[in-house]
Amino acid sequence: MNDFEFLVGTWDVANRRLVERHTGSDKWDEFPGLTVAYSFFGGNGSFDEITFPTLGSSGATVRSFDPAKEEWSIYWISSRDGQLTPPVVGRWTDGVGLFYGDDVDGDRPVRCRFTWTREGADRARWEQAFSTDGEQTWETNWVMEMTRRAP
Question: Is the pTM of this model over 0.90?
């Protein structure tokens, strides 16, 4: 519990997202974001909204901790379609959070992995990767480098 307390506040986000996934491409789209994050349930819950001003869209993440399993479930909602994605589930170990789940990318079933890394009090990194071969290989397709805004 309280694993996402570090995220509470306002963050400038440098995004890099693969233009084409599952093709071996190394062409990235880069765009800014602004995240505002909160916690709830005494630290057993976390919520953030991110806006992408140059894309004209936004998204929200809801995280919920299950104390019995000692696992987090993370859900994403995009303003583009309003759909709640299936959760990725996992935990933090030694300052790194690894979360896994099944999803669909277009029409393709994928295994999804989120990797969270705390890089001090004012920096964090999030990565999304997909596997189409049963977790033998992963393609990182979205990276967020986050820097806390001064209060």
Answer: yes
